TrEMBL record:
Protein name: Porin
Pfam family, one: Porin_O_P
Keyword Cytoplasm belongs to the record: no
Leader sequence segment: 1-24
Membrane spanning residue stretches: none
UniProt keyword Signal, yes or no: yes
Keyword list, A-Z: Signal
Amino acid sequence: MHKRSIRLVAIFLCFFAGIPLSYAGDGPVSDTTAKDTSSIKPGFLKKITLSGVFQARYTVSLTKDVDVNGTHQADAEKEVVRNSFSIKRARLQVKAQVSDRFQAGVLVNFADFASDPKGKVLENAFITYRWNDAINFTVGQFRPSFGLEDLYPVDIIQSMDFSNQYYAFGNNGWQSFQVGVSMFGSLRKNASLPIKYALSVVNGNNRNQVSDDDNGKLGSARLEFGDMNKLSLGLNGGIGAVKRYSVYALGVDFSGVIPLAEKFDLQLQSEFKQGTNHRLFYGLADSLRKGPLSDYLMHGVYLLPNFRYKINYHKLTSIEVSMRYEYFNEDFRHSGNARRTYIPMVSLAFLKDYGGRIQLGMQIDNYDRDIPGTKTHSSNLMIVQVQCRI
């Protein structure tokens, strides 16, 4: 299977040479909204941008014997913490525009120090090279584009957090923060039907690792047709090798904005993914595995409608109401325990690009089978979240 990894890299490099050079595209997606803070030594370091986000929460569990983290407490003698204040994110990002072609970026989340910081804290650490609008390269630790949720930071989503499938596919190396190399750009930026692409090859063993944990790599590709602010369709696919065995993932996503009135619109997002759950397979003892790795498959789908009313009252810019429904099954070929999640939310947005935000929502989880003493248990959480971006 080592030859498969070599072929993936070869195909990736061959694609580099085949992309036309005369099209236009976008730069890398930032995980925060940045503002210029200084300019140093023109001609060598053009500018430095500093940005960040702070999210604080108050969470209440409305389910008996389930704590604020969604974990069922089977010990009847133990006091269950059912309400708590917490810091969800405290991010700081620095980007340096070294020249008209080179950019470097670092993103850290200081809220990870609240728990075991091993393998956490550092989220982005990359260098981007821009050849032209159609060809851009990123190397380091970044979020490879493998779905709709990879295209924007968590602090501007129309829900309380990313989907369950995002974290599951991230744990398996396809999404979230990974170490590797990517090429991306836009092939028809100014056309009636814009086309964007992204190709990535990553280690697939998640962030802040000294090296890969095997000789396999994960290669993925994304094609996006249209404009996310109007109507867009994304196609995602990937293959790779984990511990000498083949794995795959695929997905399709849809997003669009439907104007309903002068200041009232509907934002729609939906996504389906399916792939090999090798983290689940290798996390089981040999005696508990049922068949080969290829039989351990996960899939999921979510639908997120968001009604937004634009308003200009002092610093208040919009009032939004959303309701995300998600179905996810981490092992549907066997006795998978399907999870259905409902997240209704009301949001007040202040300033531009959610510079300030107050969110009130619920996270309602229903499992086919509850497992006492674990997070795999039906629960109802009420969340109040306050957000500030710089």
